[in-house]
Amino acid sequence: VTVTMPSRREGTRKRTMRYLPGALLVCLAVVAASPVAAGSGELKPVKGAVVAGDFAAADLQGRAMRFGALRGKVVLLNFWATWCLPCREEMPSMERLYRAYTDKGLVVLALSQDQASARMVQAYVDDLRVTFPVWHDRDGLVGRQYSIPGVPTSYLIGADGRMAYRALGEYDWSGPEARAAVEALLGAAGRSQ
Length: 193
What we know:
Helices cover 33% and strands 26% of the residues. It is an alpha+beta fold. An eight-stranded mixed β-sheet has the order 3-10-9-6-7-8-4-5. The protein has a two-stranded antiparallel sheet with strand order 1-2. The N and C termini lie far apart (65 Å).
């Protein structure tokens, strides 16, 4: 791209902007998958009887996985990316929640929206010492299916498959509000069995 720009000495001169197309693509990609404002997370009930859609994705070892296989369990489904700072801040609280409730039936599933390789995502997960399952939605198909507005976005899904709560932005999953919501969903799951 050549841009004509005024100069005090030369009247006008042409400058070649070699990096402009690449910079525009990067900016568009960031806007399209922008993180939700840090610290803005709030747990809100999902209105109506919205059933979490089934989907297929790969785990970080490349195995095909099916979300529908988790039906009957309470699931925290988290959409995130390695480049998202609020996601990094949120993950330790998700790990604490997972450790506190995994034996009671909670599944925490983090779905990476990264276009990076699974190996790079795995290195990130290892660095954070995350032990809950992480799948890779490299093409963002599941993110589009769920119409996520950005990352992090999370859904608490009951054992009946219905979305009970949604959190947009960084959220403290180990706090009392989150624990109460998880305990209520686990209790409802126990009563229905």
